[in-house]
Amino acid sequence: MIEIKNLSKTFEQGGNFFTNSKKIYAVSNVSLNIEPGNAVGLVGESGCGKSTFARCVLQLIKPTGGSVFFNGVDLTKINGNSLKKLRAKFQMVFQDPGESLNPRMKISEIIGEPLNLHTNFSTLEKRYRMEEIMNEVGLKTHHLERYPHQFSGGQQQRIGIGRAIATKPDFIVLDEPTSALDVSIRGQILKLLQDLKYRFNLSYLLITHDLNVVLNVCDYVAVMYLGKIVEFGTTESIFSSPLHPYTQALLSSIPIPDPMSKNKRIKLKGEIPSPTKIHKICALHGRCPVKNSNCDSEYPLILEKKPGHFAACWNTNRIITN
Amino acid sequence: MLNINNLHTHIRTNYGNVKAVNGATFNLEQGEILGLVGESGCGKSLTALSILRLIQKPINIVEGDIFFNGKNLLNKSINEMRKLRGKEISMIFQNPRESLNPVFTVLDQLINIYQTHLGGSKKEAYSKSLEMLNAVNIPDASERILSYPHELSGGMCQRVMIAMALICEPKLLIADEPTTALDVTVQAEVLDLILSIVKSKTMSCLFITHDLGVIAQICDRVAVMYAGQVVELGRVKDIFSNPSHPYTVGLLNSALRADQKSPINVIPGEVADPTNIPQGCSFNPRCNKVHDTCYKKIPKNVNLNNNHIVKCHLFNNN
């Protein structure tokens, strides 16, 4: 349904009459398919280009290269008005629920806004639909008359989700939907997202750095490192047998809430390299614990190493032990 | 070495008295790491700030005692407290970039702390600062020492914060969510660092977090906080294998595990409103084992075994 082909985004920074501007390669040549009813998790460290990628997919920022097909229509090619009409079908839920709701608007205005823009509902129909949405996200209908500050963080995120599902979209991008919430509330929101997905056959692109969330909500996982996807596969195969050394390091770093489990941690040395260079060789080169002479030659292509499991690494068969 | 006894820290507001810390009681032994865990708004951070008395007017310590090495911190004068902070007790704050001064270099900030508490020449302070930065694994420490905070990454800033907290070799380190703002890979490194420093110098550490995974990895004991009270306290092993308070059970069930897929469990309801704490046990609106007594009486602490203490009516009868 969503087909992303070689999507790239380069930002330009600084530069004036005397000096050239610096280029930042935030996302480079990323391809990804999302089928109806599937949730794809996009994970990676902060600054790796996850959010930029998501915004490019929804055309909230114009990508510098590549194309995004939504039900066969290339979103990067169509004009503003047709894009606006299509937006009813793909929506976004933002990271900080408190900051993404307008403090001067009542909940009925916040949820009513997409309905005003995308439907021709009468006042009564609109009211009916809004009450329906409130029920779907687990809030009461009298909450429609309140303002965002009268709600707790978890409830605010429910409103954010309500606004996203108002126009009955097919595809929702969730940008760190639970990172601002507490453990106990996080569970409630994840449950709600799972419910909505099954009920309305929604597709999700879920961006997070919390791998626990991915395991519990997503069908597929894409691991991003420095603007490129380095591994892609079903959630089970990525969590049970990660192939890329970066994924292995990432998974081994998650603290497990069990004092008895003492799994070995794989350490990556150093910091994420600067995104201002084009990396001709593997971007993990300087930090990788299993690099060999192959890694000095050129950038590894993302290849199918096992059925349905892709990785971009020269020596994916070597398992790290330390 | 640290004994907190029935601490009440309240905030006076136009809407009424917010009982943010409402009778917290726990102790910290020499050389151990105690995890303080709970949802946001349960009073974890305010407990930490009360220990250092870093609180100001509408916030007041209304009742209780804080004994540090046998002396009550609440009886000390402002000057005595100032000498204590950074030297005997120091703190690592949640957001490293906001807690460093943006207009001074790392070196200036480290030297300032060292000379304030221990005096000595600038040369001595410089070599000690460099030693600390090396100890917290900052690469190219001699160059980095001259950078400003904005030139460093988040993980690097947090390491500078740790170096600042440890330069005077305090006896107690309070870490308030030191890794929440960091990525998992960086978090793992910072945790390793805190663990190795605390264990090698036999410092004590009060580690505040809401991440049960972090608690399981580095803490010796854990105190679970709810609505300003410690509702369960014990060794990490005991609490994770045998959680007794219904809140602890709910918290452990709602933690997601990366090593196995489990159904998502939640604690129903919302965190107790500190302006309006329910009568009796403060957890009663969300508890799945609630009975009549819970609405009437406040539960007392019960020692199950091995100093595994729980504050719940389910255990009061035995």
Task: Characterise this structure.
The complex is a heterodimer of chains A (322) and B (318). In chain A, helix 3 crosses helix 4 (123-136) and helix 5 (153-165) packs parallel to helix 6. Helices cover 29% and strands 23% of the residues of chain A. Residues 318-322 of chain A have low confidence and may be disordered. In chain A, the strands form two sheets. An eight-stranded mixed beta sheet of chain A has the order 6-7-8-3-9-10-12-11, sandwiched between helices. Chain A has a four-stranded antiparallel beta sheet with strand order 2-1-4-5. Chain A is of the alpha/beta class. Chain A has one domain (2-99, 169-311): Rossmann fold, CATH 3.40.50. By secondary structure, chain B is α/β, with parallel strands linked by helices. Chain B is 34% helix and 24% strand. The mean pLDDT of chain B is 88. The chains are: A alpha/beta (322), B alpha/beta (318). Chain A binds chain B through residues 45-46, 152-154, 182-188, 190-191, 194, 209, 211-213, 215-216, 239, 249-251, 253-261, 263, 265, 267-268, 270-271, and chain B through 39-40, 139, 153-156, 183-189, 191, 210-217, 236-237, 240-241, 250-252, 254-259, 261-262, 264-267, 270-271.
Question: Which key terms come to mind for this protein?
Answer:
heterodimer, A: alpha/beta, Rossmann fold, 12 strands, 29% helix, disordered C terminus, B: 318 residues, eight-stranded mixed sheet, four-stranded antiparallel sheet, 12 helices, 34% helix
Summary of the model, kept short:
The complex is a heterodimer of chains A (322) and B (318). With 322 residues, chain A is an alpha/beta fold.
Radius of gyration of chain B: 20 Å
Number of domains of chain A: 1
CATH class type of chain A: Alpha Beta
What's the story with the biggest beta sheet of chain B?
A: 8 strands, mixed
Give the CATH architecture of chain B: 3-Layer(aba) Sandwich
What's the helical proportion of residues of chain B?
A: 25-40%
Provide the number of structural domains of chain B. Answer: 1
